[in-house]
Design goal:
This protein is of the alpha+beta class. It contains five helices and 13 strands. The N terminus is likely disordered.
Length: 273
């Protein structure tokens, strides 16, 4: 290719119909910015030089057209042509993005969901709201372009009017400590008490009851005496104090009577002496 370029830059005039030229045509496309083209000098001259393609890269050429010698000066770096219109700089990668509207509901406001690859951020022309239209713009990271060969891509979004058949919605209610739905909004058509009772999952702690002890009544308990004998530990026996007292009294009377009889016998004996 480089030898062909050298042949085309000769100062000797040549016939435009027979002479060929290879050059780099600028497409103004960021994803495919250059096309390597080989065509006749006449087609090149009419379609690019006279068309004022100031971004094309081509060698200098001299040719004869209709008996007139035409000289075209070189434009751009000839080494770029020899390299097949390829730059040493990396070509931009492809970025992709999707943006979808999320319509307003009875409990949620209008919003949108955005995602993408090689996207740095999303911006919006206005806050999303029911009954409005906005534009969300995706911005590609440096070195990437969208399919539109631009570093940005717009997504027009239209939001429907807010629903009107929601009914009345109570303010958020707290059904109790320890429940898994504390602070949730009561759905339309349900009362707070019904919602709380149906959704409650944690059992309440048992109630604490304080009991007052009755005044203890004084009771007289019989004391069971303990008889301790040699070789025995405490052995409980039946209380026989009444029987023992009676036996002692009888024994005493017998002793008194015996003592009286003995005295009479002693006095009789003395009188006989």
């Amino acid at each position: 290719m480089s030898s062909g370029v050298a042949l085309m830059v000769t100062a000797t005039p040549a016939n435009a119909a027979a002479q060929k030229i290879t050059f780099c045509h600028s497409t103004a496309s960021k994803s495919n910015p250059w096309n390597l083209i080989t065509t006749s000098v006449n087609a090149f001259y009419v379609g690019h030089v006279l068309a004022d393609h100031t971004s094309d890269v081509y060698p200098g050429v001299t040719f004869v057209k209709a008996g007139k010698t035409i000289v075209v000066a070189a434009q751009g770096d000839p080494d770029f042509i020899a390299n097949g219109c390829e730059s040493s700089e990396p070509q931009p990668g492809l970025a992709t993005a999707t943006v979808t509207p999320d319509q307003a509901t009875c409990t949620d406001e209008a919003s949108y969901t955005a995602s993408g690859e090689h996207v740095s951020n999303f911006t919006e022309s206005a806050d999303p709201a029911a009954g409005t239209s906005i534009v969300v713009t995706a911005h590609a990271v440096q070195g990437f372009l969208f399919a539109n060969e631009s570093a940005t891509q717009d997504f027009p979004l239209t939001f429907d009017p807010a629903p009107t058949n929601c009914g009345s919605v109570d303010a958020p209610k707290v059904c109790g400590q320890g429940t898994d739905h504390a602070g949730q909004v009561i759905p339309a058509g349900e009362t707070a008490s019904t919602f709380c009772n149906d959704k409650k999952t944690v059992v309440d702690a048992p109630k604490t009851t304080t009991k007052t002890k009755a005044k203890a009544e004084t009771e007289t308990a019989a004391v069971t005496p303990t008889v301790v004998e040699a070789g025995l530990t405490s052995v409980s026996t039946k209380d026989r104090r009444g029987e023992q007292g009676l036996a002692l009294m009888v024994a005493g009377m017998v002793m008194l009577m015996g003592a009286g009889g003995l005295g009479l016998r002693l006095r009789g004996a003395a009188s006989r002496i």
